[in-house]
Amino acid sequence: MFRQLLPLVCIAFALAVAFAQEQSPDGRSVHTEMHNVMYHFTDSSAVHIVYLEGELVPTTATGIPVFDDPNSFTLNIRSAEMSIATDALANALNQYAFAAPDAPLKEIRISTQSGKLNIRGRLHSKGNIPFESVGSLSVTLEGEIRVHTEKVKAAHLPVKGLMDVLGETIAKLIDTRKVRGVRAEKDDLILTPAELFPPPHVQGRLSSVALRGNEIVQTYGNAPAHSGKMSGNYMAYQGAELRFGKLTMSDTDLILIDLDPQDPFDFYLNHYKEQLAAGYTKNTLSSGLRSYFRDYNKLTPKQKTQK
User: Fold this and answer.
1) Distance between CA 90 and CA 74 in Å, rounded?
2) Among 90, 72, 76, which Cα is nearest to 243's?
3) Which of 2, 208, 234, 288 lies 20 to 30 Å from 81, alpha-carbon distance?
């Protein structure tokens, strides 16, 4: 009897494994490649994607990334080079990470100075005392951004030396336990890029970070040169299912193309329909879509309010 049942058990196990593989998140992920895109999270916070390769991974029960629902997927990065201006990072911190009324820091401003990151603001938890810190950037073992504090001023007075004498640290001065994307470790601030911005959240392991002018340049993985898949500025999506507007693509073959390749493709997911309405779409012989988008920053006020 056991010998007769054994083949049936093996077949059932193989079918269960195959079904599990079909239902795995990887099987529902949409491969994406982006080139020279200014990707908006808010009106005043955007990152410049020089090159990116990764997947849109669904996060809801439908198992489908949906453009109209930024909470329906995460963008998992395999390799990328991107940068963010210090002003844009400050806006993201003020409007998202430190937006809560009881957040410890307020009115944050960020700039660069002699290859260092200069952070100004107010210690809200200490009576809104103005502060200023100067620090260097590096990548943690976990692939996050470490801002190592070298100088600190509070109420315009140097306090770093006094803090060292008293055994005080930034972590004791600033309580970041309820803050998204930022935590304090001794005299360092640790920034988790995936949590600093509104959805869709971007996941990936940083391999390097550097300052270039007023830009913070981040590299994920071993970012290759532009693949040469196509010229111009674009966002390409391939495989699995993807939903945008009233259309759901299976075995997705969609490329969003910048109408004006002379500057980065200014893209804002919350307003992609207005950008598409100001452009046009073509079908390929293999049932793919090539959608030509107007840059968000070039839409007229009337185009931005269209529904």
Assistant:
1) 23
2) 72
3) 288
For residue 169, give both structure tokens: 């640290």
What is d(CA 305, CA 307) in angstroms, rounded to the nearest whole number?
6
Model confidence, pTM: 0.83
Average of per-residue pLDDT across 259-285: 95
What's the distance, CA 244 to chain centroid?
A: 20
8 Å CB contact between 209 and 145: yes
Confidence band (pLDDT; 50, 70, 90) for 280?
very high
Least confident of 31-40, 180-189, 232-241: 180-189
Give the separation between CA 239 and CA 277, rounded to whole angstroms.
25
User: Residue 133's closest CA among 115, 114, 148?
Assistant: 148
For 282-304, what is each residue's pLDDT tens digit? 999 999 999 999 999 999 988 88
Please, are residues 267 and 237 in contact by the beta-carbon 8 Å criterion? Answer: no
Which among 89, 82, 84, 116 is positioned nearest to 219, based on CA atoms? Answer: 82
φ, ψ of residue 38 to 5 degrees: the values are: -95, 100
d(CA 22, CA 29): 11
Q: Specify the residue for token string 């997705």.
A: 252
pLDDT for the residue numbered 229: 64
In sequence order, what are the residues at sequence separation of 6 or more whose Cβ sits closer than 8 angstroms to the Cβ of residue 227?
Answer: 33, 53
Reference 180, options 161, 164, 194, 166; nearest CA is 194
